[in-house]
Amino acid sequence: PEYPSERSVVASTASTVLTLRFGNVVVFLNNGSDSNVFRSFIAAAIDEAQSGVFGGIQTTSSSVTGLDVGR
User: Which of 1, 4, 7 lies closest to 49, judged by CA?
Assistant: First the structure.
């Protein structure tokens, strides 16, 4: 069986809480190994969910389901 991605659930939940607190029009920069500019918290959550797929540890459907569960 396939379960919802935990990283997607946590990222989506965090983005929901942060959006409620700070609003949806936020631009911020991730200065990690490759710099990304995110225009919303949900955009960062989606990027986090996709990282599990790109890393080969989750499937796309488990990541999408995790994003839905976290909202």
Answer: 7
pTM of the predicted protein model: 0.85
DSSP state of 30: E
- E-state strands within 1-71: 28-30, 36-38
Q: What is the rounded CA–CA span in Å between residue 23 and residue 25? A: 6
Q: Is the pLDDT of residue 66 over 90?
A: yes
* CA 67 vs CA 22, 32, 35: distances in Å: 20, 22, 23
CA-CA distances (angstroms) from residue 25 to 36, 44, 47? Answer: 16, 13, 17
